[in-house]
Amino acid sequence: MVRRLRVHSPGQGLHEFTQSLSQLVSEAGLKEGLCTLFVQHTSASLVIQENADPSARRDLERWLSRLVAEGDELYTHTSEGSDDMPAHIKAALTSTSVAIPIIEGRLALGSWQGVFLWEHRRLHSERTVIVHIV
Amino acid sequence: MVRRLRVHSPGQGLHEFTQSLSQLVSEAGLKEGLCTLFVQHTSASLVIQENADPSARRDLERWLSRLVAEGDELYTHTSEGSDDMPAHIKAALTSTSVAIPIIEGRLALGSWQGVFLWEHRRLHSERTVIVHIV
Amino acid sequence: MVRRLRVHSPGQGLHEFTQSLSQLVSEAGLKEGLCTLFVQHTSASLVIQENADPSARRDLERWLSRLVAEGDELYTHTSEGSDDMPAHIKAALTSTSVAIPIIEGRLALGSWQGVFLWEHRRLHSERTVIVHIV
Description:
26% helix, 134 residues, homotrimer, 5-stranded antiparallel beta sheet, alpha+beta, Jelly Rolls
């Protein structure tokens, strides 16, 4: 089955959607399988990271934003805003698709793993993630 | 179905092959499914990025080549040329495999998404991408 | 089929497990298919890299550890040890899941490709990789 999932994206950083994804997996009703996620954007990405302490994801965002700085004189693609070219680079350094096995009807995530949309632009409110379950 | 796709690779940078991939997906004749790509090399990678303005992919290449510089005195693996170790690092920072859902018989790419081979070496003319469609 | 694979992880760096993975693929007995790997941790990742010269993977580890340094004053998530936050960042920059097609009953790896667990913490002895074969 294939579903479109709308993920709320209130600005730059990691936004968790493990719960709505888990619900889709429940609805699929498979005991064993594979859940593949694909984000339909070139300035946002997917990441599986620590879901316990929010300081870990804050540091991830701050570290990556320092590495891929705005206003770098190297950029020639500047017509779509100062956060646009850094967003493309950040997306290329992280993941557009991610696959998670399903065991006993549930996502086989580790104890501390959550599924996040990593928003790289300032002014987006929603992103589309395609979910394929088989 | 599994197919070998030969992708033309005229030097370092992002080389689009969305069209030949879309044709394979058409041939598969599936209404709904998943298309998984795998590049059989450790010095080239796969990336889904903006297919509209070529300046975005030029900046991606230039930014990554500045981050992962040739001639870094840290390298000990230098016998295969000055662009070899940077190529391995660039490949490790990007993706060896990527999965794209199929909806209504077509790759479910976003409006601005194209599929690219990211060549990290100077002297390659062709690379092999394995395409699995189910 | 879905299997849990225990991968030995003697400290930071790339640890190959191509052989145990190939054996699982043999056991599955499929002529054609897809093998998807998923690491159940947020401080270790998966990478497909050169399996010939060990100097390449040593340089990968050293380069990434220089880029994502310990003791960076940017970090606020510091309670789990000085190698913890760098480990999360390294994992986010590399891959949590990887998919490899199966052709003629074997993993369709390129001539120089091996499958590695990339351990980003100092004190781990074993990691869990979920293997989905279809």
